[in-house]
Amino acid sequence: MALHIAGQAPSLCIRREAYERSGLTRTAIDDRLGLTPDEFRVEGDLVVIGPIHGVALDDLFNELDTIGLRYYDDYFELSGNWPDWLQMLVTSP
Fold it and tell me: What is the pLDDT of residue 15?
């Protein structure tokens, strides 16, 4: 099933295998980003976090790099920079 990605704020997509390998925890991410229950979703091989509000993504990316994740190979952001009339859905192969 595809996951809806909200516009107007970025979302972070992480390969599920990379997320599990990294040692990241849902609690740590919730604490870091102040997420609601609906802002952390897992479907198949994909973890989607967001929309993310009020967080410097560069700092977050540096933290992910520090724990061994690689931008684009393991995670990337969808900017959320599209109009409300466009609906974005993502899924993993």
Answer: 95
Give CA–CA dist 72/32, Å, rounded.
21
Whole-angstrom distance, CA of residue 89 vs CA of residue 55: 23
Question: Buried b / exposed e across 29-55, counting CB within 10 Å, b at 16+?
Answer: beeebebeeebbbeeeebbbbbbbeee
Q: Which class would CATH give 8-81?
A: alpha beta
pTM over 0.70: yes
pLDDT tens figures, 37-54: 889 999 999 999 988 888
